[in-house]
Input
Amino acid sequence: MEYFAQQLINGVTLGSIYGLIAIGYTMVYGIVGMINFAHGDVFMVGGFLALIAWLALTAMGVTAVPVALALVLVLAMAFTALYGWTVERLAYRPLRGSFRLAPLISAIGMSILLQNAVQVAQGPRVKPLPPVVPGNFFQSEGAGGFVVAISNVQVIIVATTLVLMVAFSLLVAKTPLGRAQRACEQDRKMASLLGIDVDRTISLTFVMGAALASVAGLMYLLYYGVVDFYIGFVAGVKAFTAAVLGGIGSLPGAMIGGLLIGLIETFWSAYFSAEYKDVAAFSILIVVLIFMPSGLLGRPEVEKV
Amino acid sequence: MSRGHPDAPTLPDDVLLRVERLTMRFGGLVAVNAVSFDVRRGEITALIGPNGAGKTTVFNCITGFYKPTVGRLTLNRGDQSFLLERLRDHEISRRAGIARTFQNIRLFGGMTVLENLLVAQHAPLMKASGMTVLGVLRFPGFAKAERAAIEKAKGWLERIGLIDRADDPAADLPYGDQRRLEIARAMCTDPVVLCLDEPAAGLNPSESADLNALLRSIRAEDGVAVLLIEHDMSVVMEISDHVVVLDYGRLICDGTPALVREDPKVIAAYLGVDDEEVEQVEREIEERAS
Amino acid sequence: MSARAAGGAAFAEALRDAGVAGLITLGLAAPMLGLVTVTKPEGLKLDPHWPRVAVAVAIVFVGRLILNLTIWKPGRPPKTLVKPKLEARLSKLAKLLAPAAILFAIALPFLPGVERYAVDLGILVLTYVMLGWGLNIVVGLAGLLDLGYVAFYAVGAYSYALLAQHFGLGFWACLPLAGILAAFWGVLLGFPVLRLRGDYLAIVTLAFGEIIRLVLLNWYWVTGGPNGITGIPRPSFFGLEFKAGPDGFAATFGLPFSGLHRIIFLYYLILALALITNYVVIRLRRLPIGRAWEALREDEIACRSLGINTVNTKLTAFALGAMFAGFAGSFFATRQGFISPESFVFMESALILAIVVLGGMGSQFGVAVAALVMIGGFELFREFKDYRLIVFGAVMVLIMVWRPRGLVSTRSPTVFLKEKKAISGSLVQEGQG
Ligand SMILES: Nc1ncnc2c1ncn2[C@@H]1O[C@H](COP(=O)(O)OP(=O)(O)O)[C@@H](O)[C@H]1O
Ligand SMILES: [Mg+2]
Output
C-alpha cells in the first residue's frame, strides 16, 4: 500500500513534467496543425538555460533558494521563449500553408540542429547538479517499515504545474490572445479577415509553448539533477504521446495525457520491469488510438462526405 | 461472382432499389425519418427538397458511407438481391453496382482525366493484373485488359466531349467539365444505379442542357437507372420520370413530376424555406401551367 | 522623393532589420554559447566564452545586412522560386540523367582512382536509396505518413542475423524470408492502425518503431540486448566465400586475393537490390494497385465510392514498403557482420523520410538524388564531426523552405493517350494519412 502510494506520487510528478511539455505540442497542433518535432529539443534547451541561469545566479551570489529559483524560472522562460519564437520564424513560418509534410521535415531538421548545436556549445557530457531543494515535505512510515515520502521538489513541481495550468487555461479562455488563438484554430483565413494578426498569434503560441517547456526543463533538472543534450528526444516523444492520448488540441487533455503517461511509466517500472516502461506507454497509446481515434478528450473527427 | 443476400426480400422485377423506413440519426438530430421509396429500372428518379432536408444523407446511406439507424435498403439485380446496409462502402459499388458522385466534386485532381477513369475500373483491372503479381512480371493478360479499359475510358471521354483533355490533370478542368467527368468516372464502374448529388449546381444553361442530354442517354443507351438530387426545378421537371420530395427528413410526396408540382405540401415546403426558392417554384409552376 | 533618399531609407531599413536579427542572436547565443557549463572538482561551474557570442552576432548581423541589400532587396519581384519552365526542363533532364546515373553506378568500382572508401560510401548511399524507394511507396504514393519505417529495416536485419545464427541459413535463403517477415510485421501493425488518419498514423508508427527498438534492446537472451549480434555470416558469391583459401572466390577465378572483392560484391549486391526495388516500384505505379494508392492519396472517400477496398490497398502499400526495408535490413546485417539496436533509432526513420520528402514525393529520381546529397554529403564532411550534424539539420530546413515539395515536385502520369505532360505539384494532394 505504501509502495503504491509512493509510486502514485512519483507518477504524478513525472506526469506533470510531461503535461507541461505536452501543452506546447497540443497548442501548436491546434493552431497550425503540425507536429512541432523540435519542441522536445526546446524543452532540452529550456533545461540547459535553467541550469545556466542557476549557475550564473549562484556565481553572482544569489544564494537564497526561493529567490534564485524564481529568478531562474523567469530567466529560463524568457530565453527559451526566444528560442521558440526563432524556431517558428525560421523553420515554420516560411512554410505556412504549404505542403503538409514540409514543416514536419523542417521540424525534424530543426530538432537535429538544436540538439547538435547544444552538444557543440555545451559539450556532450551529462551535466549533474547537486540537489537544490533537499528534504521531504511529508514523510510517513508504513506498517512494513516502508517510508512514503513526498519530497519538496515534488511539491514544487506539482504546485507549479497546477498554477501554470490554471493560468494558461484562463489565458486561453478569457484573454483576447486566447480568443485570437481559438479563432485561428477554427479558421485562419476568416480570423485574418476579421482583423486578427495571425502571424503574431501563432508566434505567441510558440512562445507560450516554449515557455512552458522551459518550466518543464527546470522541473526535470530539479527532479533528476541532470540534463544532457539528448533528453529532448525521449521526453518529447512521450509528451507528444501524452498530447495525442489526451486528445490533441485540448489543453486539459494534454495534462491528463501527461499524467497518464507518467503514471503508466512509473507503475510499470515499479511492478513489472523498468526496461519495458516505454514499451508500455507506447503500447497503451496505440491501443487507445485504435479504440478512441481522437484521444480521450479530443473532439471526434466527423467524416464529411 | 458474388452471391446476393439470400434473406433479401424479393422485389417486383421493375423495382431496382427499394428504400424502406430509412431513418438516420446524428445524436439528437433526425436527418432522415422513416423514408420509403422505390427506384425503378430504366427511370430517372429525382430526390428533391429544401437545403438540409436530408437528401445527401439518404445518398450516404444508400452508398454505404453512413450506416442507417433503422431501415432496409434492397437492391435487385435480377439474379441476386443485396441488402445494402450490410455491405461495406466499397462493396456497394463493386457488388451491388451503385455508383455515385458528390455534392462537392471529388475528382483525383492531381491525376489526369484518363487516370481518373482508369481508377474507376480498379476491380476488373486488379483481377487482370493477377492481384498485382502477374502485372509486375508483365504478363500479357494485363496489358490486354488495360487496353480495353483505356478504350472504355475513351468512349466515355468522347461522350462527354473531353477526349482532347485526356492527358490533363483533372483539377485543371473547368467546373462544368469536372462535373461531367465525375459522372463518367462513376459510369466506368459499370453500375446499375447512378446516384448524382446536385450535378447541375453551378452549371450555366448550356452546360445544364448538355447534362440533361447526357443523363437521358445514360438512361436510354446504357439502361442505367438514375437517382438524382437536384435543386434546379427545370431540370427535374424536364428529365425525371418520378420525383421524391423530402422535407425535414420526412418524405412528403412521391409521384410523377406533374403530380408533385401540384402538391400543396411540396409548395408549402418550399414556401416555408426561403423567398428566393419560393419565387422560383411559383414561377416554374406558372410556366408549366401556361 | 529623390532616388538617393529612397536608397538611404532602404539602407536604414536593412540596417535596422539586421540589427534586430543581431539582437535576437545575442539573446539566443549569450547564455548558450557564452556561458559553458563545465564540471570542475568543486562541482558544475560556468566558463565564459564571450568571443563566440560576438562572432555569432557579427555573422548574423553582417549576413542579414548583405542579404537585405542584395537578394532580399525591397521591391524585388515576387518569388516564384522555380519557374514552371525550369521545372519541366528538370523533369526532362531527370529522364536523361537516370540511365546515365545507373551506368555510372555500374561502372563506379572500376573507375580509375576509386578506392575502397568510395565503394563503401557507394554501398551506404545505395542502401539509403533503396530504403527511400521503399518508403516512397508508403509516403510518396499512398500518402501514408510512416515515422517508424526503420522498424522494418530492423526486422529484416535481425531476421537474417537470428536465422543465420540459430538455423545456419545462408544469406540467399534469408533474404526473401527477411522481406516476408518484415512485410508480415507491416501487416500486423497496419491492420489495426491504418484506419487512423493523418498525424495519428504518424505517431502510432513512431511508437511502433520505438517499441521494436526497445524490445531489441531489452530482450537479451534473443537479441543480445545493447551488445547486439556479432559474427553474422558474410554473403557468398553463389556459394563461393570471399576468403584467402584455395576454395575462396579469388582462388576459384584465378585472381590474387583481395579484401576489395567482397566490398565490390556487396556494392553490386545492393545496387541490384536497389534497382530491383526501383523496377518494382515503377511497375507498381502503372498497375491498378499503384493507381489506387495515388487515388487514395488524392481522395479516400472517392476511392471508396469507386469500389476500392481502402484498407487492403493501404495495407498492401505498408506491407510492400516494409518488405523492401526488410531486404535492405538483411543486406545491412550481412554487410556489417554485426548489428545492434543503435542502428535502428528514430533518427534513421526521420532520415529516410527526409530523403523521400526532399527528393520530391513520388519521384524515384528525386529520391535517389536526395539520398546521394544527404548521405554522401554527410559522409564527405566526416572531419567536421558534430558541426556537420548542425549543418545537416540546417540544410534540411533550408531545402524545405526553398522547395517545400522537394527537388522533383511534378507528378508524371502513369498512362496517357497522346502526350505525357508533367502535372504540377501544386495540384497533387499529399494524402491524409
Ligand atoms: N455526419 C453528420 N453529422 C451530423 N449531422 C449531419 C451529418 N450529415 C448530415 N447532417 C445533418 O443532417 C441534415 C441533413 O443534411 P443533408 O442530408 O446534407 O441535407 P441536404 O443534402 O438535403 O441539403 C442537416 O441538418 C445536416 O446538418
Ligand atoms: Mg446535400
Observations:
- Residues B 55-56, 103 surround magnesium ion (ligand 2) (CB under 6 Å).
- Chain B has twelve helices and ten strands.
